[in-house]
Amino acid sequence: MAEQHPPRSLIVTFYGAYGRAFRGPVPVSALVRLLGAAGVDAPSVRSSVSRLKRRGFLLPARTADGSAAYGLSEEARELLEDGDRRIYGAPRRSEEWLLAVFSVPEQERAKRHLLRSRLARLGFGAVAPGVWIAPAHLEGETRRTLDRLHLTAYVELFRGAHLGFAPTAESVSRWWDLAALAKQHEEFLDLHEPALRALQSGPAPEPEAAYRGYLFALDAWRRLPYADPGLPRDLLPADWPGDRSAAVFAELHDRLRDIGAGFAQP
To answer: Is the pTM of this model over 0.85?
Structure first.
């Protein structure tokens, strides 16, 4: 199975992994070189950067010598900081639930679509129309996201326990597509567990190879802690692959990120 890494996604992943360590904005020439090492050609880098600029993720800038460069917007920095907590932190488990109850007027249905899509991207499951649920540890990130998107006027948030009537594990299997989530974990393992075994049995990689391997692993992994938001372990199937995929990524991170940083320089 070939792994797909769209150029725009790799650029976001690069900024999350290495771009914030640059002193000032990242020169376009450095982006072309560093994304080229991951197989992205220069025209694709430039067109993807332009799209990220239109979205407000990147801001055009100049380096000290006047070269064209791109830095992160404040919104992008906040998104990446939220991502750090999900991607690199230990999996968090909540006994309580966070409930988002919303109502958006029909004439503002575009905001309704935006609200639903962002709740889904945060890892919420759908209980009923206008009622979405997530582990309670997502409260802070949810508040920041809704405030940033100017959606707080349409939403009420509640914390509490599930009191029935169906068993909670049965309800969780309706609120989230656990089979699809398990498949995502298994696909990550199929692609990256062999790479980890090769690292465990061989010499440390050269900086460029470590950089490329880490960029691909992070780009594949970073969506999983959002799709799988840290559901209580006792509510998941006994053979849940999420723990193993998290351990594989954590070891790849430990073995590759700092070595790769030696290549990811201006």
So the answer is: yes
What is the C-alpha separation between 26 and 68, in angstroms, rounded? Answer: 9
Q: How many CA atoms lie within 13 A of 152 on its CB side?
A: 10
pLDDT in tens, 51-68: 999 999 999 999 888 889
SS3 145: helix
Residue with tokens 């220069």: 42
Q: % helix / strand / coil in the chain, to the nearest 5?
A: 60, 10, 30
- Strands 155-160 and 58-62 come out as unpaired
Other C-beta atoms lying within 10 Å of the C-beta of residue 242? 23
Angle, vertex CA 96, rays to CA 94 and CA 101, nearest 5? 120
**Cα 226–chain centre separation:** 6
Complete edge-to-edge strand list for the sheet that includes strand 97-102: 125-128, 131-135, 97-102, 155-160
Torsion over CA: 249, 254, 256, 258 (sign): positive
- Residue 70's DSSP bridge partners are 26, 60
- Is the distance from CB of 45 to CB of 98 less than 8 angstroms? no
